[in-house]
């Protein structure tokens, strides 16, 4: 019985550590050229091509960047740098932008 409790506790700790490690990797900074923009309800999605030839779909909304004072509208052709939560959907890279670092 003691061994079962120890093993269960060890598995719980390992799961916790692994999930915390994965959370650290979910934040990412992406920089590149805006190739397309699709409007949304309270923001837009920008298709960003990086120098490494990767494509990211960046969801930029007023709520996620912390309010209207932090929100910026980008244009096709702008060079942007954004930070946020990354995830992969099938073969597409997505980022929910939490901070707009620069727009040129």
UniProtKB/TrEMBL annotation:
It comes from the Bacteria. Residues 1-21 form the signal peptide. Keywords: Signal. This is DUF3221 domain-containing protein. It comes from Flavobacterium cutihirudinis.
